[in-house]
Amino acid sequence: MPSAPYQSEGPFRLSIMDRYIITELIPVFLFGVAAFSSIGVAIGALFDLVRKVTESGVPVSLAVQILLLKMPEFIGYSFPMSTLLAALMTYSRFSSDSELVALRSCGISVYRLVVPAVMVSFLVTGMTFAFNEVVVPGANYQASVTLERALKQEKPDFQEKNILYQDFREIKLADGGSAQELDRLFFAQEFDGQRMKNLSILDYSQKGLNQIVVAESATWNFAKNTWDFSNGTIYIIAPDGSYRNIIRFEKQELQLPRAPLDLATRGRDYGEMNIADSQSYLALLRQSGDLQKVRKLEVVIQKKYALPFVCVVFGLIGSVLGTRPQRTSRAKGFGLSILIIFGYYLFGVICEALGYTGLFNPFMAGWFPNMLGLSVGILLLSRASR
Prior knowledge:
Blueprint: H1 16-56, H2 60-96, H3 99-105, H4 110-113, H5 115-134, H6 136-150, E1 161-172, E2 178-191, E3 195-203, E4 211-221, E5 226-237, E6 243-254, H7 259-264, H8 275-288, H9 291-306, H10 310-322, H11 330-357, H12 362-384
Antiparallel strand pairs: 1-2, 2-3, 3-4, 4-5, 5-6
């Protein structure tokens, strides 16, 4: 006896209906990737590159290379949009061709009908996450470096001025808890990639300020894992705040953390780092005490996690809207997709801004659009099943 179209043929095998729907989703998804990537790269990179070729004399061959390096970023953005387009247009065609009516007359619920779209959405989510982590950061970095070289405005891959690093230690409180207490403050006015200049170090490792080091320059000694200071003075501070001793030196080796060097040599922007790089940089920023940058990077990291899951939200919403019993042309489907995408990303930008200002915590700033979108999708699904 033949199996029903929605029944799987084995414990881990897709049913005929699932395979049919997935087969119909894939071509529209690939069309969406091509269309949205082309639109994105044209708006986000091509026009600017044409201007640089005509006004700044960037060679056409380098402009083409930069354009190709920027493509992965826009392909990554296109995956969620293409998921929405594929789900919406495929299910709309099923509805307009009365295929959904036939399937529902066999007793298949709307909940079961959208399962293939959700399965594909999860697959695209994994693909988007891997693509954004492995391909996009490196390509963006190479594009930036190539453009700077073409413009002969190559920026140093390190922070040049005002390197501030705060080293904290954990202390035990009387109630059994713990807290962070400032251990040392490191400040250098300039950095040339090798040497820190005009340094001041305030040492609070004992009770209160107990030592001040002022030096003309310092370099990191990779062999000994220490800092080599040149032409400086060490002020030993007594508990009453007076100078207990003053030591002048030409060369002095000090056991200080390497973190200020790591902080200064981190030159990539957030789009050129994957999550692991961002987490590593976040740990350094927390030690630097720059709370504004810390909060911004925390929001960015949450968005890096949340963005791929937009595919699931869009896949659910698109498939449910497509099951509505009305005819939707390709142009109408594409236009509706654009409206949903625009509204969704506008809301995402607002949440991100609220995260930067501190009105939303970083988790909510990154995930609230997904949570709201998923709630809307579930509500639409519930109504469509009635």
